[in-house]
């Protein structure tokens, strides 16, 4: 829609200059050039057209919702744990002890089941940043390794509360790489399943582009 509107504006601009639009789509450069009133008009038109094309391709007016599941082998679950202490300043079963630092490398899957197809990895760190030890600060990258967004990533940061299962919390999407370059938005997380050794969370990313 933004691309269509931009072209309509350009068409009106061209008409105002007295340019024959039919010549603009003709493959012969000489005919197009002869229809322009001056070289400055050519430059202005090309700049406007180039801007509209870039806008359409980058999806600056786009909106994207992605859902996937974070599959974690919890802290202290043995040699296959995907969450470990980098610094353990104070004991805590959640890792949220004040001053603690944990790092993680969890699998992202399409669904909640442990054999659901893998789409990427959730790689990041968490810091016990609350004296009350009821939350932490997380900084992470959602790195896609399969599917449509293979090779791209989403940057996320924000609080991670120590809370019961099914608690919904929000973190900020601050950027990304590849298909998510200039991404902004928010990530909703809800832990939906747990065992003695695993924790599964549903991630909903709501993304717009600058």
- Which bin fits the share of residues in helices? 10-25%
Characterize the main sheet: 8 strands, antiparallel, barrel
DSSP helix count? Answer: 4
Radius of gyration: 25 Å
List SSEs in N-to-C order: HHHHEEEEEEEEE
Count the E strands: 9
Tell me the fraction of residues in β-strands, as a range.
35-45%
The overall average pLDDT, rounded, is: 81
The first-to-last residue Cα distance is 16 Å
Shape call? globular
Low-confidence stretches: 1-37, 50-60
- In terms of quaternary structure, the protein is single chain
For the largest sheet, list the strands in their spatial order: 1-3-4-5-6-7-8-9
Helix-strand category: alpha+beta
Fold blueprint:
Elements: H1 2-17, H2 21-24, H3 29-35, H4 39-58, E1 63-73, E2 83-87, E3 101-109, E4 118-127, E5 135-144, E6 153-161, E7 168-177, E8 183-194, E9 198-209
Antiparallel strand pairs: 1-3, 1-9, 2-3, 3-4, 4-5, 5-6, 6-7, 7-8, 8-9
Helix pairs in contact: 1-4
Transmembrane segments: 6-25
Protein name: Dirigent protein
Subcellular location: Secreted, Extracellular space, Apoplast
Q: Would you give an account of this structure?
A:
This protein is of the alpha+beta class and 210 residues long. The protein is 22% helix and 42% strand. It is built from 4 helices and 9 strands, in the order H-H-H-H-E-E-E-E-E-E-E-E-E. An 8-stranded antiparallel beta barrel has the order 1-3-4-5-6-7-8-9. Helix 1 runs antiparallel to helix 4. The radius of gyration is 25 Å and the shape is globular. The N terminus is likely disordered. Keywords: Apoplast, Membrane, Secreted, Transmembrane, Transmembrane helix. One of its GO terms (cellular component) is apoplast. This is Dirigent protein. It comes from Zingiber officinale (Ginger). Belongs to the plant dirigent protein family.
């Amino acid at each position: 829609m933004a691309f269509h509107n931009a072209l309509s504006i350009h068409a009106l601009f061209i008409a105002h200059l007295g340019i024959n639009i039919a010549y603009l789509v003709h493959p012969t450069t000489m005919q197009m050039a002869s229809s322009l009133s001056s070289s400055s008009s050519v430059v202005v038109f090309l700049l406007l057209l180039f801007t509209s094309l870039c806008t359409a391709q980058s999806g600056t007016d786009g909106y994207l919702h992605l859902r996937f599941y974070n599959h974690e082998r919890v802290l202290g679950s043995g040699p296959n744990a995907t969450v470990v202490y980098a610094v353990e300043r104070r004991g805590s079963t959640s890792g949220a002890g004040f001053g603690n630092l944990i790092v993680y490398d969890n699998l992202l899957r399409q669904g909640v089941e442990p054999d659901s197809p893998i789409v990427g990895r959730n790689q990041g760190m968490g810091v016990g940043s609350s004296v009350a030890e009821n939350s932490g600060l997380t900084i992470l990258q959602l790195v896609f390794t399969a599917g449509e967004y293979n090779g791209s990533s989403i940057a996320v940061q924000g609080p991670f509360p120590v809370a019961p299962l099914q608690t919904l919390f929000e973190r900020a999407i601050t950027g990304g790489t590849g298909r998510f370059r200039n991404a902004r938005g928010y990530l909703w997380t809800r832990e939906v399943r747990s065992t003695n050794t695993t924790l599964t969370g549903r991630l909903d990313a709501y993304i717009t582009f600058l």
